[in-house]
What does this fold into?
Amino acid sequence: MLAVITGGDRGIGKAIAIDLAKNGYDIVFTYRQNKEKAKETLEELKNYGNAEYYRMDVTNWEEVQKIFKEIGEKYEKINVLVNNAGIVGKYIFLEDITLEDWHRVMNVNLTGVFYCCKAALPHLKKAKGCIVNISSIAGKMGGTVGCHYAASKAGVIGLTFALASELAKYGIRVNAVAPGPVDTELLSKELKEKLKELALLKRIAKPEEIAHAVRFLIENKYVTGEVVDVNGGRYMD
Ligand SMILES: NC(=O)c1ccc[n+]([C@@H]2O[C@H](COP(=O)([O-])OP(=O)(O)OC[C@H]3O[C@@H](n4cnc5c(N)ncnc54)[C@H](OP(=O)(O)O)[C@@H]3O)[C@@H](O)[C@H]2O)c1
It folds into this structure.
């Protein structure tokens, strides 16, 4: 069983890769620029089974096509695709967000997910596989890191719903996880400190807690078109 995880060298993607490796999956993960981290993560993954990495920028359609073709030829099929790679913008407020910043966030967080789903589809079909997209609480209620990030993550939820409907005929399930703040390098220390107060559980999530939800969506064969919240009770009062 092969799981492909985008942005798997660090943060949530790394936790997902390790969790799935521990549960018997062969792992292919991608990274964009952090080769040192990718090498470290690969070494760790090899303790659990087969793993390899590719350098891939999810915003580069030619590169995404080429790499999924290579993976498909090598492994014959893809059982699981986790679209995890994502960024926050440089700016937070509408007045400050430049057009460049807007497009960068949308390209990585939304268009990148579309590219990977499209390029992986022939290989997912062969496995009757599944897709898990990493959205965000920001995609459901705006969040704190800007309208471009929120819009991109809401877009991921729309993409998830539409693809769940469309791809069910191939036996492919499509779901998403919407984490609240997670302890990774994506958010600044100050923001993490502030955000932990907003959760009922008074802390932010560990990456492993997001990985756990991802595995649930992979393993439960009767769930599709679903967005699972993992946010420490953020919606409660
Ligand atoms: N942390 C949170 O609080 C939080 C909350 C909700 C949702 N999320 C979502 O969870 C996902 C993972 O976030 P994280 O916190 O683990 O972030 P992170 O620690 O900053 O890691 C981001 C990952 O995405 C990769 N990446 C960035 N731009 C890319 C591109 N253009 N092409 C390919 N890969 C790219 C990075 O690769 P390099 O290492 O090579 O740069 C890295 O592996 C993101 O989609 C994020 O929006 C995070």
Summary: The mean pLDDT is 97. The radius of gyration is 17 Å. The domain at 2-230 is CATH 3.40.50.720 (Rossmann fold).
